[in-house]
């Protein structure tokens, strides 16, 4: 995905009522969502509520910081149309 795709995803969730960003001490942070593009595996803005860890040869895993780790889902999952969530 490119920058235009990322922007469209953020706009989609904003329209659903999420507040994607907050400003603390003059610096922008992720708030109610967090964009982590592959292969960088780091948030595009600071995000202190996501924990990133290298799992194994399969790559990275992400979960809420301080919460139990859930089941790891392997492989790509088909997405019919991301923006069609009705």
Describe this structure in words.
- The structure is a single chain.
- This protein is α+β, with helices and mostly antiparallel strands and 86 residues long.
- The chain has one domain (3-64).
- Helices cover 15% and strands 24% of the residues.
- The strands form 2 sheets. Strands 1-2 form a two-stranded antiparallel sheet. Strands 3-4 form a two-stranded antiparallel sheet.
- β1 (21-24) and β2 (27-30) form a beta hairpin.
- The chain is globular, with a radius of gyration of 14 Å.
- The mean pLDDT is 80.
Give me a quick take on this structure.
By secondary structure, the chain is an alpha+beta fold. The chain is built from 1 helix and 4 strands; from the N terminus they run H-E-E-E-E. It has one domain (3-64).
- Helix percent reads 10-25%
Order of helices and strands: HEEEE
Instruction: Kindly give the count of domains.
Output: 1
End-to-end separation in angstroms reads 23 Å
**Spatial order of strands in the largest sheet:** 1-2
Radius of gyration: 14 Å
By DSSP, the count of extended strands is 4
Question: Unreliable stretches, pLDDT < 50, 5 or more residues?
Answer: none
**What's the shape?**
globular
Averaged pLDDT: 80
Structural class: alpha+beta
Strand content: 15-25%
Count of helical regions: 1
Largest sheet: 2 strands, antiparallel
Topology of this structure?
Blueprint: H1 3-15, E1 21-24, E2 27-30, E3 50-56, E4 59-64
Antiparallel strand pairs: 1-2, 3-4
Name the descriptors:
single chain; alpha+beta; 86 residues; globular; two-stranded antiparallel sheet; 15% helix
